[in-house]
């Protein structure tokens, strides 16, 4: 079965910035970052198709994937258009100099208005699920994030998250571990969420040093104007 080649999907992806070295876009919700077993059109290949079409490029288009967002998560992402940019941005991710900020709507209210969460996470590759385990368990990796409560009402809270590590499903699992399951999370919150609800997690800000200009680049993306986001005011980040 071959990957869907729906080039029209790329035209629906907002481009926030583009030059010869980087491409910054707003990832749509429910689109895989890269090709997966679903064979649905993914963001990486959609953008390659778009570049090929817009610039009339022959042959294969280079586009480097340096970080990821889960399929149900939308928001700002950066891609590398050259191998030099890919190497430098990957180093920035590894050394935690690529600063990522998220907002989420969760059930309940966190125990503290702000805190650093540290957990050890283990991924079951058979089920593609992640769980909190004891430190030292084989194949477990440390996950660290900072959160800040931005507002609460009607049994829900708006939380800002800054990641220090980039583990699979990290935000969803760590917040669920403190009793704050994400709104719409069917995988880690089926007991409190209804089928069909959209996961309320958005990559809202991204900053990094430009790989060649050495200038600090900052980008912002707002969640869609729909529930549950419309119940809160998203602050300037």
From TrEMBL:
Q: What transmembrane ranges does the database entry give?
A: none
The domain of life for this entry's organism is Bacteria
* A Pfam family reported for this protein in Swiss-Prot or TrEMBL: PseudoU_synth_2
One GO term in the molecular function aspect is: pseudouridine synthase activity
Where does the record place the Pseudouridine synthase RsuA/RluA-like domain? 21-177
Query: What is the reaction catalyzed?
Result: a uridine in RNA = a pseudouridine in RNA
Per its UniProt record, what CDD domains does this chain match? PseudoU_synth_RluA_like (cd02869)
Name of the featured protein: RNA pseudouridylate synthase
Q: Which GO terms describe its biological process?
A: pseudouridine synthesis; RNA processing
């Amino acid at each position: 079965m071959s990957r869907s080649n729906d080039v029209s999907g790329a035209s629906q992806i907002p481009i926030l910035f583009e030059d010869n070295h980087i491409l910054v876009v707003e990832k749509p919700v429910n689109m895989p970052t890269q090709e997966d077993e679903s064979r649905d059109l993914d963001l990486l290949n959609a953008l390659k198709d778009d570049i090929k079409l817009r610039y009339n490029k022959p042959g294969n288009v280079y586009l480097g994937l340096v970080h990821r967002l889960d399929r149900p998560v939308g928001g700002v992402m950066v891609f590398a258009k050259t191998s030099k940019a890919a190497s430098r941005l990957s180093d920035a991710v590894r050394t935690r100099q690529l600063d990522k900020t998220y907002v989420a709507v969760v059930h309940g209210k966190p125990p503290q208005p702000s805190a650093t969460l540290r957990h050890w996470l283990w991924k079951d590759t058979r089920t593609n699920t992640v769980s909190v385990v004891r430190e030292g368990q084989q194949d477990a990796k440390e996950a660290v994030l900072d959160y800040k409560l931005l507002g609460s009402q009607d049994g829900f809270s708006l939380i800002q998250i800054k990641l220090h590590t980039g583990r699979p499903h990290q935000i969803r699992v760590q917040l669920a571990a403190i009793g704050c399951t994400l709104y719409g999370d069917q995988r880690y919150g089926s007991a409190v969420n209804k089928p069909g609800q959209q996961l309320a997690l958005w990559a809202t800000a991204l900053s990094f040093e430009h790989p060649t200009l050495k200038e600090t680049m900052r980008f912002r993306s707002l969640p869609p104007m729909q529930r549950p986001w419309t119940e809160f005011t998203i602050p300037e980040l």
